[in-house]
Structure formats: C-alpha cells, structure tokens
Amino acid sequence: MWFSMIYAILMAGGMGTRLEVPCEKPLFKLCNKPLIKYVLDNLKPSKLIDEIVIAVSHHTPETTEYLQSLDEDFQILDTSGDSYLTDLSFILDYFEKKSDNDILLFINADLPFISTETIDYVLQYYLECGKDALSTLVPVEIFKDLGLNYSYEFNGYVPSGLNVLRSINIVQDEAQLIIPKRELALNINTLLDSKVAEKLYQEYYI
C-alpha cells in the first residue's frame, strides 16, 4: 500500500462521564501520572508514526492546557466533542483535505498500557493486510479474567480503542485483528477499571 504519512490520532475530547471523578478523564491519574501521558509516552517511540495529533474539545479545556504546558512534539486539534462518531467524521474530513492517502491510527486517551510494540505491530499488520481500515478486537475471556465490564461483544470478541483508517471519509473495507493482550482490554472507563489497572501497573511499568 502506498501512503504519504502515518498519523497517530489521540482522542481526548469526550466527556468521560462514566468515570465519575472531579477531573477530565484524560487527566485522571493512574499511579500519579495522567492517563493521556501514558498514551503519549507509548506513541512517541514508534518506528512507524510520523506525527501525533491530539483531538480535544470544549469538554476538555484543562487537558488542552496541560498539553500546551508540555514541551513535546504534537499537534492539538479542536473538535466538537459531541460524540465519538461526530469527531471521527470531522477528523477524517480534516485529513482528507490534505491527502486521501494518509494513514490514521486512532487511539483513546484511556488506554495507558498499550505498548509501543503493540502499536507498531498493529500498524505493520495494517500495511500488509491490503484493506483500507483495521479494527482490533480482544477476546472476551480477558475481560472476564480481569473482572472488567465491557459495553459490546460480538462472537466472543470486544472492540478495543485502537483502530486504523485511511484518510478518507467514506465507509472503508475493514480487516479485523484479534489481539489476546490485557493491555488492550484496560481502558479506564470506571473507578473499577482504575483499581484493576493499579494492580497491574507494576507488571507493565516497573
């Protein structure tokens, strides 16, 4: 597949109401570090990503302020924050105006454990699969083993917050990649999720 650029799109503009904490979700601290900083630190060493773009909205002004305080190389993109799909469509339109041959890796700001190795594995699989889009799925057994809730399951698999699309706002022919790793299941949506994550922190970061 020929492409121009690979962008990582870090989604950080949602309301995050399920977490029920008095701070914006991307700034929720896991072991004294904001969730969004984990994701940023895991994206930066990628051998395949050319640029990082962080999608924020009026729902996350403190997150925007925090990002602006960092001396790091990324772009901040304002979105409506109305819904994930609305923001996704806006971002696809935004990048399609530049080029319809860029690759966009979408990752949620609440996935602190997804490693650089996994990110590059997903991108490499995408480059070789011959499809315009790629979704990643996690076996439901991993959620059950960890005691985590999940909102949607199909044929024994749960969608993760890591997906790849071409920079064109149309329905895209999609491949699916099953990754049986706990790091993809641990998106911090609730305080229960954060408690599970705290127990696993040493395994991933110490």
Order of helices and strands: EEEHEHEHEHEHEEHH
Biggest sheet features: 7 strands, mixed
Number of helices: 7
Quote the beta fraction.
Answer: 15-25%
Please characterize this protein's 3D structure.
The chain is of the alpha/beta class and 206 residues long. The protein contains seven helices and nine strands, in the order E-E-E-H-E-H-E-H-E-H-E-H-E-E-H-H. The longest helix has 15 residues. The mean pLDDT is 92.
For the structure shown, list the relevant keywords.
single chain; 206 residues; alpha/beta; 7-stranded mixed beta sheet; two-stranded antiparallel sheet; 34% helix; globular
List the helices and strands and how they pair.
Blueprint: E1 6-11, E2 29-30, E3 33-34, H1 35-43, E4 51-56, H2 61-69, E5 75-78, H3 84-96, E6 103-108, H4 116-129, E7 133-139, H5 140-146, E8 157-166, E9 174-178, H6 182-185, H7 191-205
Parallel strand pairs: 1-4, 1-6, 4-5, 7-9
Antiparallel strand pairs: 2-3, 6-8, 7-8
